[in-house]
Specification:
Strand order of the largest sheet: 1-2-4-3-5-6-7-8
Structural class: alpha/beta
Helix content: 25-40%
Order of helices and strands: HHEEEHEHEHEHHEHEH
Largest sheet: 8 strands, mixed
Number of strands: 8
Radius of gyration: 17 Å
Distance between the termini: 43 Å
Shape: globular
Length: about 300
Amino acid sequence: MKESLLKAHRLFKDNLPSYSASVDEVRKITEEQMWGSLPVASDLITEEVDIDGMQGEWQFFPESSEERVLLYLHGGGYMMGSINSHRSESSEIGRAAQARTLTINYRLAPEHPFPAPIEDAMKAYSWLLDQGYHPKNIIIAGESAGGNLTAALLMYIRDTGTPLPAGGIMISPWIDLGLTGETYTTREGVDPINTKAAIQQLADNYLNGVSPTVPYASPIHGDLRGLPPIYVMVGEAEVMLSESLTFVTRAALAGVDIRFRSWPAMFHNWIFCHSFLEEAREGVDSAGAFMEELYTKQ
């Protein structure tokens, strides 16, 4: 295994909290020692924004377009993660297409279970429309639980008759909260980050008794007809690989312009290692190319 990949694995293995730890302990460790320890570009500009009482942040660079927006929804199993923890990843994906990135601190489980994050994501999207941004200049993206939230939000926007954005990007999406995919078994022990037992705990926290087959909770079960173009990106070492494959197949059968790419040997949300891992930088650039295509189609 090459040194940069070993470095990425160590970042997780040395800092990944035990899921027997308290919620506050898990959040503190991931914020300060794992995601939050990653470098942020020196030329990044940030602006705090209040979205009807919800904390948001604009992230942009000198070359960012005033019109292009990436609404980025962070991951963390719906239990952890924040604007701060994912700033390095969210801002770089926006930079790849010269877009301004809007990130939010949506409410987290177990204090705020399903469907609170979807309500908050919709609040952010509606706020962007109210600010005058054209929906076709907005792209929604997220990784892991944020990938779930991206798909759920796209379905919710469609179902409420709200104008749809240009498209979505789902990175290592966790979209089957029933954990039924075969790679939860075949990738167990291969995935350096996730175990089925830990993910089951996160699912229970978020669902709070709701069935994992409810489409807004598990978009793999959703009606995908009429959704805008979606790009699904996943690592081949992930326990969540098979649900991405199933989602892509169902989206294609529903007539969605669905794009898919898998990266050999890559782990869950490898993109966050873009500062030192070649495959992660490649992933950022690939997402940027997809976004550029959608923005310039308008």
